[in-house]
Amino acid sequence: MKSNVPLSMISADGALSLPMVAILNSAFDFSEVSLQHSRWVPYTTNWITRIPAYFSGIKQGSSIAAMVMGRYIIHNNNTDRSLNAWFALICHEQSHRSEVGLHGGLWFYIKYLLQSVRYKYRDIPTEVTAYSLQEKALQLTYANNGEVLNILESKTLTVTEKCDMLRGIGKRFSGS
Ligand SMILES: [Zn+2]
Question: Residue 95 Cα, ligand 1 centroid: separation in angstroms?
Fold first, then answer.
């Protein structure tokens, strides 16, 4: 089934576009390797994605937007998500991705399950981090009349030009 992700951010094969890697690496210090290895797949891709999606409640229109399974990010393929919201969601999930990478996949999920018993969803420590980055990412998309989204969506700039410009913006943003 067709994915509804914006192609300026996520390529047809589910990998983050080069300009997205450039801006997320420079603005939020996510490792390039982790960004390059992420794969976004709609929950409808195949039965392997449908099973975790079924149990976690991911479906089109549900409030659960996406979840990280190792390097794969299963998302609900919503059609009504704005570009700003997509950018912020990618940043949110990438925050989980970098924790999976740092502490090992299995430990991340065990800790998450234990903490989800103790805390409300929004108070789970890894969610606090992810939501704070999501909020910063949203601010970044609105800064300077939406320059980040304008560059990502540009039909005239080359990929190299986009990457160079976004790296400059990201560095300024992370230093501010
Ligand atoms: Zn989360």
Answer: 8
